[in-house]
Amino acid sequence: MIWNKARECMDRQELEQLQIERLQNVISHVSKNVPFYKDRFHELDIDCCDIKTLDDIKKLPFTIKQDLRDNYPFGMFAVHMSDIVRIHASSGTTGKPSVVGYTQKDIATWSELMARTLSSAGLERNMVVQVAFGYGLFTGGLGAHYGAERVGASVIPISGGNTKRQIMLMQDFCTEMICCTPSYALYIAETMAEMGIDPKKDLKLKYGLFGAEPWTNSMRREIEEKLNIRATDVYGLSEIMGPGVAYECECQNGMHVPEDHFLVEIVDPNTLEVLPIGEKGELVITTITKEGIPVIRYRTRDITTISADPCPCGRTNVRIGKVLGRSDDMLIIRGVNVFPSQIESLLMEFGDLEPHYQLIVDRIGNLDSLEIQVEISENLFSDEVKRLEDLQHKISSDILSTLGISAKVKLVEPKTIERSEGKAKRVIDKRVF
Ligand code: DLL
Prior knowledge:
Helices cover 31% and strands 24% of the residues. The chain is of the alpha/beta class and 433 residues long. A nine-stranded mixed β-sheet has the order 4-3-5-6-7-8-9-14-13. A four-stranded antiparallel β-sheet has the order 10-11-12-15. A four-stranded mixed β-sheet has the order 20-19-18-21. The protein is globular, with a radius of gyration of 22 Å. The model has no long low-confidence stretch (mean pLDDT 94). The site of 5'-O-[hydroxy(phenylacetyl)phosphoryl]adenosine (DLL) has 22 residues, from helix 6, strand 7, strand 8 and strand 12.
C-alpha cells in the first residue's frame, strides 16, 4: 500500500520545485547555526544565494563521518539542546560514534517516512508487528516502532535477542510482520526449525522488513521460503535519520528514496566527481528538512546505483539499488578489489551452502591470504569427504575465474559460524596496516 500518494507519487516538476526551496532553506539554516558549515562555506566563498538550481548542489562541500566525530558529541547540531528531544548514535565499533539529535519535528518526519516504508512492505493498521531490531542508541528499534505506531498497527517492542521467546510471542500474539536484520531473520528461521515450528502451519507471519546490513537476493529468497513471508529491504543510516532513507516496494527492484526529504547523488569515491545516473559509485545524501542535525552532501561510503526508470508501483521517487559494499569495506587482496557481497553472491549459486559465511583475511610473509569459511547445508553430510573436497575446489576455482582472487575455501558444519542478533560480522581482517 502507498502510505502518502501525494508525496510518493508526486509530479517530478513539482517535486523539484519543493526540493530547491527546501535545499535553500537548509543551506541558510546551517550557515547560520552550525559553525562547521559556516566556516566551510566561508572558505569556499559560498553564499546561500549561489544555490539557485538543484544542480548547484555540486558547489557545496561534502560532509564525512569524521566531521561528526571531530565535533563530538553535539557540535554539528543546528538547534539549541532545549529543542532536541532524542539522541541516537551510529553503530560504529571503532572510536567515538557519530551522534545525532532529533527535534519533535524530526521525529514526526522520521515516523512518516517509516510509515511509508512499513506500508510499502505490507503493514496495515489492523496488523501485529514485532520489532526485533535493537532498541537503544541504534536507530533500528525506535525507528520501526514509531513508524508502525503511525500506521496504527499493534507493536511488540521486543528488541533483538532471546530468540525462543521471540518465536513464542510470534505464535501467541499472532505476529504478522517481523522487522530485524536479515541475518537475524535467518537465525530465527533456524531456531524455529529446531523447535519443530512450521511457519506455514503454526504462525500468521506474512511480511518481513529487513535492513541495516547488506544482503543478496538469494538470501532474500531463502528468508522468504523459510519464514513463508514477503521480505522487503529498508536502507538507512543514523547520520541521515535511521531506517527509512530508502525502501523497497512490492516490485523488489530497488529502494525508493523519499526525495521530498533527501537529495541523492552518486560520486566516484576516488575523484568525488558526480557520476551520471545508472553508474555505480558512492551514495551521497543531503537532508533538506531536518532541523536537529541537517547534513550536506554526506558521503555514506555505501556503493550502489541510482535508477530513475519508472516503477510499476506508481511511485515517482528514484530508487537506489542493493548496497553492493562500502568504499571503506572493500577488501584489497593482493591488489584485487573485492566486496564481501560479491563473494556472497557467488557462494549462494551453490545449492548446498548456507548464507552463513565469514571471510578471514591475513598476511602470510608479504602476501595477503583469504580464507572463506562457509556452512554446508544439513543435507550434505560432512563425512562425504570426496564430495566436500570437490565442492571446495569448485568454489575456489569459480572465485578465481570470476573475481580474480585465490582463496582457500573451508566448508564448515551447519550452525558453527557465530550468529548475530544484530548486524552479522562477515569479515575478519587480521592484517596490520
Ligand atoms: O543501520 C539504520 C538502519 C536500521 C537501517 C534498521 C535499516 C534498518 P547505522 O547503524 O548507522 O544505521 O548503519 C548504517 O548500515 O551506511 C550501510 O552500510 C548499512 N545498511 C543499512 N541498511 C542497509 C541495507 C542503520 N538495507 C550503515 N542494505 C549504512 C545494506 C545497509 N546495507
